[in-house]
Design brief:
0% of the residues lie in helices and 42% in strands. The strands form 6 sheets. Strands 1, 7, 10, 11, 12, 15, 17 and 23 form an 8-stranded mixed sheet that branches. Strands 8, 13, 16, 19 and 22 form a 5-stranded antiparallel sheet that branches. A 4-stranded antiparallel sheet has the order 6-9-18-14, with no helix packed on it. β20 and β21 form a beta hairpin. It is globular and about 55 Å long. It starts with a strand and ends with a strand.
């Protein structure tokens, strides 16, 4: 029987003249099935924790809420996704998401989802995402960013297992053009994708994986670097691999806009 696991996460965008970052919260799993400790080909599930996508031998720690499921096929980590504070403009505008910051990592990281497959039968899996609603103003329910499109680009994979049978990711930009439609971000055919994998969008300038750097400093109105005091006063960077595009005909009122993404990992075939 096909098993499907899903979780939801909240995305936030603040418009106006605010300068402080607004954290997004990932909800707890809405469904989780299966047992831990399943083996395949003699490999026991090591329960790696959250791994650095650019240096997967290293574990990352975070005190922020994030989404995850349980079981031998699972999503280990769906982080917060934040578009920070932005000026309102009349024309077409692209908002870049913040790169991820961790207290124990010197440089920022691309937005990534970590998945694990420790089933005895590696039948394959798919990782998908669905946007449930348009971005809605949290203080004005009738105000939303009509026509806004969220997109993911520059995707790549990495693993702490040392495996070479990696899942496939799209080399094209993935645009969530239709609200409520499900889009595939990664797919592992039968016999591939075993172990723990990060599916990452964007990379730092000092990455050792030959990935194109996608970060640039986020500056305030005075042209000074935006600082995240909760992350050891690290500078905040924009990640050009994750964008929210808003057309010029859309009314943009000051406030915080939010939407919900549903992340789905499911068994193949």
């Amino acid at each position: 029987m096909k098993t499907i696991h899903w979780i939801s996460s909240l995305l936030l965008l603040t418009t106006g003249m605010l300068s402080s970052a607004i954290p997004a919260e990932a909800q707890e799993p809405t469904q989780a099935n299966g047992e831990m400790g399943i083996t395949f080909d003699g490999l026991v599930d090591p329960n790696f924790g959250i791994r650095d996508p650019e240096a997967p031998k290293n574990e990352l720690t975070t005190d922020e809420t994030y989404g995850k499921t349980t079981g031998p096929l699972r999503i280990d980590f769906v982080p917060n996704l934040n578009f920070n504070s932005n000026k309102i403009v009349a024309g077409d505008i692209d908002y870049a998401a913040d790169a991820l910051l961790f207290k124990d990592v010197i440089s920022p990281r691309g937005y990534f989802i970590q998945v694990s497959d420790y089933r005895e039968d590696r039948t394959g899996w798919s990782l998908q995402v669905r946007q449930e609603t348009q971005f809605i103003n949290q203080s004005k329910a009738n105000s939303q960013l009509n026509g806004a499109v969220l997109s993911f680009d520059k995707s790549w994979t990495n693993t702490p297992n040392g495996g070479s049978r990696h899942p496939d990711v799209s080399k094209e930009v993935i645009r969530l053009n239709n609200i409520g439609e499900t889009y595939t971000l990664a797919k592992a055919d039968k016999g591939t994708g075993g172990g723990t994998w990060s599916i990452t969008f964007g990379a730092s300038h000092d990455n050792k994986n030959n990935e194109t750097p996608t970060f640039s400093p986020r500056l305030d109105e005075a042209g000074q670097p935006v600082i995240d005091s909760a992350k050891g006063n690290q500078a905040v960077y924009m990640n050009d691999a994750v964008h929210l595009s808003v057309p010029k005909g859309t009314d943009k009122e000051p406030g915080t806009y939010s939407t919900v993404l549903t992340w789905i990992i499911s068994e193949l075939p």
